[in-house]
């Protein structure tokens, strides 16, 4: 059974960089896409971006200028960096396995439990 | 950015049938991208409920079903149970200006 676990600071200061890591266990990180998704308190889900195990990426156009997702296949981990954060970036951040079953299908079949990141001075 | 529109809330009594709609456009659902549904119980991560419009992952009861037509999709829940009370999100893919993943705004299901 694939399991994902987010880790990183729970508090980030405004204008600084939010950094999170997702560790994948119970399966290999290779041959899959992996995503970051966030959920502000009391609000809906927002996809941040995904990375393939080869390193190719795709980001949400609304966040693209501030986001970097990277992968370390030797550690079965992938990471998120979001720079120049503001209070609007306060959210629960989830990592998720992204299944691309066909040219028209992208979905998230395994999720981490999520980690709350608060942006505040 | 394009959006997937869901009703903010729906409700039903135990045993009843409810449906949740998800309306998109010609650049996402109408462009033949598949629709997926997630159930999020309070305080937990979302769980994949329906994938590729109408398929259930292993372990999901057959009380849950999905459909898609044109630029819209629907999630139906029959034999409503108290434990179905949760937030439900639809999700698809959009290829308008640049290709990206899209979520609906979410629907809160209340079991009366």
Structure description:
- The complex is a heterodimer of chains A (121) and B (112).
- Chain A is mainly β and 121 residues long.
- Chain A is 0% helix and 56% strand.
- Chain A is built from no helices and eleven strands.
- In chain A, the strands form two sheets. In chain A, strands 2, 4, 5, 6, 9, 10 and 11 form a seven-stranded mixed beta sheet that branches.
- The mean pLDDT of chain A is 96.
- Chain B is an all-beta fold and 112 residues long.
- Chain B is 0% helix and 44% strand.
- Chain B has no helices and nine strands.
- In chain B, strands 1, 3, 4, 7, 8 and 9 form a six-stranded mixed beta sheet that branches. In chain B, strands 2-6-5 form a three-stranded antiparallel beta sheet, with no helix packed on it.
- In chain B, β5 (64-69) and β6 (72-77) form a beta hairpin.
- Chain B is elongated and about 40 Å long.
- The interface between A and B is medium-sized, with 25 and 27 residues.
């Amino acid at each position: 059974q694939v399991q994902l676990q987010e880790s990183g600071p729970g508090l980030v200061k405004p204008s600084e960089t939010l950094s999170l890591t997702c560790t994948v266990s119970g399966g290999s990180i290779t041959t899959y896409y992996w995503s970051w998704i966030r959920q502000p308190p009391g609000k809906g889900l927002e996809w941040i971006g995904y990375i393939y195990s080869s390193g190719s990426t795709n980001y949400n156009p609304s966040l693209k200028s501030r986001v970097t997702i990277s992968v370390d296949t030797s550690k079965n981990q992938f990471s998120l960096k979001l720079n120049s954060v503001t209070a609007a970036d306060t959210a629960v951040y989830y990592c998720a396995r992204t299944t691309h079953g066909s040219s028209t299908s992208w979905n998230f079949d395994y999720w981490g439990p999520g980690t709350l990141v608060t942006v505040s001075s | 950015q394009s959006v997937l529109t869901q009703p903010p809330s729906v409700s039903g009594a135990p045993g009843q049938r409810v449906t949740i709609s998800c309306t998109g456009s010609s650049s996402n659902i109408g462009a033949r991208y598949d629709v997926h549904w997630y159930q999020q119980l309070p305080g937990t991560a979302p769980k994949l409920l329906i994938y590729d419009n109408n398929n259930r992952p292993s372990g999901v009861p057959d009380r849950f079903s999905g459909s898609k037509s044109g630029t819209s999709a629907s999630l139906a829940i029959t034999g409503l149970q108290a434990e179905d009370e949760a937030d439900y999100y639809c999700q698809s893919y959009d290829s308008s200006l640049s290709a990206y993943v899209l979520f609906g705004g979410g629907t809160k299901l209340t079991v009366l």
